[in-house]
Design a protein that fits this description.
By secondary structure, the protein is of the alpha/beta class. The protein folds into two domains: 170 residues, Response regulator (Rossmann fold); 148 residues, Response regulator (Rossmann fold), CATH 3.40.50.2300. It contains eleven helices and twelve strands. The strands form two sheets. The chain has a six-stranded parallel β-sheet, sandwiched between helices. Helix 3 packs parallel to helix 4, helix 5 packs parallel to helix 6 and helix 7 packs across helix 8. It starts with 6 loop residues before the first helix and ends in a 7-residue tail after the last helix.
């Protein structure tokens, strides 16, 4: 069975999965040993070449280091498999253009679509149309407004980023014995749900050590806005113990503001995991950064291939690909920076 299976069947099963939590897919991980009586084999052949899979990929305009890494990692991952034919649409921030791209993929009858939507609500209808046409849709980073619009969703953990940053901040406070610490937070765009989730996670984690944010400002995920907002923050707060900046791209400007003001009395924690942040961590100019994986689209490519070839995740007892995967938000420090260096991106 494959996408190559009856399209109306795929649609019906996807609907059941969305409503009832069932998952669909066949598996290539079942034992061929008749003595095993149906037991799963511990050996996976998921990476062995299989039936060629045509995957359409539509991502954002690469106007931000993390977004560029999303696109690059998707193409690099597809190149690792000889059985993937990848069709890449031009990166865009225009929902209407992206809708047209998905319609083109539908008309081309691709096997799967991996999509980081410019706007989850705006792309929901066309993604649902793809699913109804029997095309597997893998949703990346920004969720659709309907569970019927995707077979699988892969997300970074925005709330978890805040929890990781806040928990790490509490550790600093305890380790250094800071009484009545002054904690500052530099958000990205304050109106975005992802920013609100990060801030909520940070606040919730700080509650664990009885602390709150004293100074909260917001930038716009750009170097220029980061420098401007951080400069204003430093003028408003003559002493700060900990600063968490949500985004390492805007963090380039944030760090410039710190240098311009000759301020380094605080522990500086970043977010996302840029190569520049990891360089600063190694040089001792930055305490840590919280990873927001730029590999989400690459993971989407891998899962789209598995789904189209009716394979599952070999490391799970459940033999099918989950409908929702939330990636971890680890803290990168001087002690483990080399472990995560391969995942960094250029701001």
């Amino acid at each position: 069975m494959s996408r190559i299976m009856n399209k109306s069947l795929l649609t019906r099963v996807a609907a059941v999965a969305a409503v009832g939590g069932l998952l669909f897919a066949c598996t290539s991980n079942e034992s061929d040993d008749s003595d095993g009586e149906g037991e799963q084999s511990a050996v996976s052949n998921n990476d062995e070449p299989g039936e060629t899979v045509t995957i359409g990929f539509s991502g954002p305009e690469a106007d931000h280091g993390w977004l560029a890494a999303i696109n690059d990692s998707a193409e690099a991952e597809a190149a690792e498999y000889e059985d993937i034919e990848l069709r890449v649409a031009e990166g865009t921030n225009d929902p209407n253009q992206q809708i047209s791209q998905i319609e083109t993929f539908i008309n081309a009858d691709v096997d799967a679509i991996v999509l980081l939507p410019t706007d989850g609500d705006a792309l929901t209808e066309v993604a649902t149309q793809a699913m109804e046409a029997g095309i597997i849709v893998v949703n990346v980073d920004r969720e659709f407004s309907s569970p019927f619009a995707a077979r699988t969703t892969i997300l970074g953990d925005n709330y978890g980023m805040g929890v990781s940053a806040g928990t790490y901040a509490c550790g600093i406070i305890e380790e250094e014995g800071i009484s009545d610490p002054v904690i500052a937070e530099i958000q990205g765009i304050a109106s975005l749900p992802l920013t609100q989730d990060r801030s909520q996670g940070f606040a919730d984690a700080l509650q664990g050590c009885g602390e709150t944010v004293d100074n909260q400002v917001s930038a716009e995920f750009t170097v220029e806005s980061g420098e401007e907002v951080a400069s204003n923050l430093l003028q408003a707060a003559p002493e700060i113990d900990i600063i968490w900046n949500h985004d390492d791209d805007q963090g380039v400007g944030v760090k410039q503001a710190f240098d311009n003001a000759d301020r380094d009395e605080f522990a500086f924690i970043g977010g996302a995991g840029s190569c520049q942040a990891m360089d600063l961590i190694e040089s001792g100019e930055m305490e840590a950064t919280v990873l927001y994986p730029p590999t989400q689209a690459a993971d989407g490519i891998k899962l789209a291939r598995l789904l189209a070839q009716d394979k599952g995740l070999s490391d799970l007892v459940q033999v099918e690909v989950p409908t929702r995967i939330v990636l971890n938000a680890p803290v990168v420090t001087e002690q483990n920076v080399e472990e995560y260096r391969s995942l960094c991106f250029d701001s």
